[in-house]
Amino acid sequence: MATPQKEKIVQEMSTKFGRAAGIYLVDFTGLDVNTTNELRKNFRDSKVEYRVLKNTLAKIAFEQAGIQGMDQFLSGVNGYAISYDDPTLPVKLLEKSKDFKEKLKLKAALFEGKIVPANQVESLAKLPSKKELIGQVAGMLNSPMSKLVNSLNGIMYKFVNVLKAVEEKKR
After folding, report:
1. Which CATH number, 3.50.50.60, 3.30.70.1730, 3.40.50.970, 3.20.20.80, labels domain 4-127?
2. Which helix (H) or strand (E) holds 52?
3. Three-state SS for 80?
4. Cα separation, 96 vs 86, whole angstroms
5. DSSP per-residue letters across 91-142
């Protein structure tokens, strides 16, 4: 039976799921309290939200957010790592720590609106972040311009040296 509290949770989570860039579904069975607290702290420091939610509430929240196909992963105990800016950040944080990597089981991810199964989730950790990609593109676009400027500066420098040599020769 729906209670106002559950309805509020579903509404809140469907909004969060709808605007998330990346959602990672993890099975946290076997995680002790200290490791869980460390995990939550790492996520919080990186502006990644970590929530534990009942499967029935999560299923309704996904449906309300217009996300189809996550039902198959909603069994057992699930934690949800939600990132709004960088969709690869949660899995990168999980990959950094040996404890998290060994004790947490990644079930699936919703990456930029597409469902990624567990066997492909770890490859997302190897992807550069959005900021890194923008920096790489900017560097590639800047490189030809920098080379042109350096070439023109070299020509001008040589021209000025020739003019100085002519001036000194006439003296």
Report:
1. 3.30.70.1730
2. strand 49-52
3. strand
4. 16
5. HHHHHH-HHHHHH-EEEEEEETTEEEEHHHHHHHTTSPPHHHHHHHHHHHHH
**Reported pTM:** 0.71
Rg over CA atoms, the chain: 26
* Alpha-carbon separation of residue 100 from 39, 57, 125, 128, 155 (angstroms): 8, 25, 14, 21, 57
CB 42 within 8 A of CB 94: no
List the domain boundaries for the chain. 4-127, 128-171
3-state secondary structure of 164: helix
Q: Tens-of-pLDDT digits for all 171 residues of the chain? A: 578 898 999 999 999 998 888 899 988 887 888 888 888 898 889 899 999 989 999 999 999 988 888 888 888 888 899 998 888 888 888 777 766 667 788 888 888 788 888 777 777 667 777 777 788 777 777 777 777 777 777 787 787 788 888 888 887
Q: How far apart are CA 37 and CA 96, in angstroms?
A: 16
